[in-house]
Predict the structure.
Amino acid sequence: QVQLVESGGGSVQTGESLTLSCVASGYTASSLCMAWFRQNPGKDREGVAQIDSDGRTFVADSVKGRFTVSKDNTKNALVLEMNSLKPEDTAMYYCAALSSGICSQMDPRHFTGWGQGTQVTVSS
């Protein structure tokens, strides 16, 4: 089972940027389909972005053009660069992994490895 640890969350103002990192252990991140999800209390977990073992990415429409997902193979990590943040981006952000390099639908039920989450708060 892959172990995932997120970091980089915080409180920022509208329009500012944050970069989240998720370090994996037990598996090589570059060989996995990995994704970022976010969730607010009482709401469903929402897919934000995912990347497969070939580096192909998918980004949700709600963050397209503002968020970029990538892998840092030197750190065995998944990275989410978030620019032009909006109050509606406020959520707990979770890193997730599949035990496969192939990504399919960005559905949280498909992912077997999860981090503990990192909070992102954007104020207006």
